[in-house]
Amino acid sequence: MRLVLTFYLPQCFTFYTLLYCVRQSSSDSNGAPVSGGHRLKFGDGRPKHGTDEIVQFPDTKNFFENYVLSSKPLKMTGAAKLSPAFRLWEDDYFINMPMPPGNKVTVETRKKENRTQPTTEMHFKEFVLVYNDTDQYMVNSVPKFLGKDIILPGPLQCDEITNQGYLTEALMWFSSGGTNSVVHTDSVDNINCLYRGNKEFVMVDPHKYGDKVDIDHPQGAYSGVDVDNVNYTKYPGLAEVEFYHVNITAGDCLFIPYKWIHQVRSYGRNIAVNIWWDHYKSKNIDLDRCTNQFDATKTLDQYSFVGFADLLSNIDSIKDHFLDVAKRAKDLTLGKFEDIFVGDMGPEELEVMGTGYKSVFKKIFNAFDKNRDGIMTYEEVVQASEEDWQLAHKGIQQYDAILRAVDQQFSEGEEVPDIREEL
User: Fold this and answer.
1) Cα 5 to Cα 9: distance, rounded to the nearest angstrom
2) pTM, whole model, 2 decimals?
3) CB-based contacts of 387: which residues, under 8 Å, 6+ apart?
4) Chain centroid offset of residue 276 CA
């Protein structure tokens, strides 16, 4: 079992031509009015938009100024074809290549994600031999022996990015197709490149409709809405949302901005790699120094990825997360506040962790609950002082230390972390 501090990344909290659909009105079985899209797939029956699209990668300055810092998605057609993986990644290639005997990967056991399904570990070659005949779905850091096959996306090749610890994680998604994610957000910027199959992304601009999409599982930054049968009675805000629909095919890449709400489906034999990087550190890049040309020799095996725990180093990330939680939550009591951090942990993990974390959360909660009414409100978080934020920063680091101690007990002897709990 792997417990890692992440920000709003699915499972634990330690810190991806304009079209319009006709809007229809109807009623559910209880007579409540609903709009087009009720009981349809997530994103269907509502106004649809496309994204900007260019051929291959843009230069770094254009990419960051017009898309990353402007929080705007971008489809890059043919960009993934530049990597050797586009040519090489067939099952026979994987099976015949030399690799460490203990090289295990994390595998999900169901293709329709619900964040409660069990995961397992198996050797990478074993997965390749069985995935076509099962619902097993690999979600794991890109194995080191495959890093040489992936070129770091051109806009991220600037030394201002690669030498400053901005790269967070490189994740590989591998299945026989038919996967179906929950509606979720990620607390990092993301370039998703597809090497086999097709993917359908349905996205929501959080700046316009963030308050309409109920992220009712804040401990994992996802919504419990059934993405195949959306219930507008239970999730009424979705009846007011406009969606971005983007289809990518093998060879394409898609930029998904920080905190954009999205849901993903895959079709056909499917292999994708996404590169995550720190959103807040992006603001410190001197883009005038990023004059590099795309270099096809700069592959992932040459770079270090710092992991999600590094997000703790930036207090702005902590502020953003707390504000987001307080804005979405109603009547945020100390118990609910704790649950945001530990709600997805099982009894075994909680038993090992003990009760020390409770005093950490209580101290943080009391710093923000200024009127001592037992409720942390969005207004109180907005008005928090720099001293309050420093206290919260220190407290989250203490909680991270507790989790790492627990993690050491669970992962002792394991060769591969459970990456699913970092997402």
Assistant:
1) 9
2) 0.86
3) none
4) 8
